[in-house]
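Hey,

Quick one before I head out. I ran the complex with coenzyme A overnight. Inputs first:
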Amino acid sequence: MPDPTILWRGPVDNEAVNRLHGEAFGHEPFDDDWEWLVDRHSLGWVTAHDGATLIGFTNVLWDGLTHAWLQDVIVAPDAQRRGIGRSMVERAASEASGAGCEWLHVDFDDELAPFYLGACGFEAAAAGLRHLR
Ligand SMILES: CC(C)(COP(=O)(O)OP(=O)(O)OC[C@H]1O[C@@H](n2cnc3c(N)ncnc32)[C@H](O)[C@@H]1OP(=O)(O)O)[C@@H](O)C(=O)NCCC(=O)NCCS
């Protein structure tokens, strides 16, 4: 497989993002309007493409000032462990920095510590998460 094309704020195909989200998290595709969501709520987003096929997506939320957050870092199962996740996070970090952000946050389950702390350059930090419903 050739190297994927990595884009910042590239075109968003709702059906492709919903399919990828379902494949990566192991659920039936939802019907979310990603085009509207990222336009309204995100500093930006990163996509990875193999030709015309979407194989990676990363959403970058922010506070409008100096903090940005990663959400939904996803790579298609058959494209994982090729460095695509790391490349998307690197692009997200570089674009957030260029937009004036000082901090990039992410939360994750313990099993992904080798990815975020080992491969993507995050430092471990205490954080809180409250389930609202
Ligand atoms: C997590 C995810 C985005 C990683 O993407 P990826 O493209 O496979 O990751 P990379 O190839 O860039 O991985 C770089 C390194 O991170 C580590 N790593 C990657 N995935 C890992 C995993 N699932 N568990 C533990 N370490 C992992 C490895 O050290 C890897 O290097 P190696 O392949 O030489 O061993 C991908 O597995 C995924 O989409 N998972 C399902 C959705 C998900 O859980 N997303 C995260 C939500 S917080």
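The first helix runs from residue 14 to 25.

Talk tomorrow,
K.
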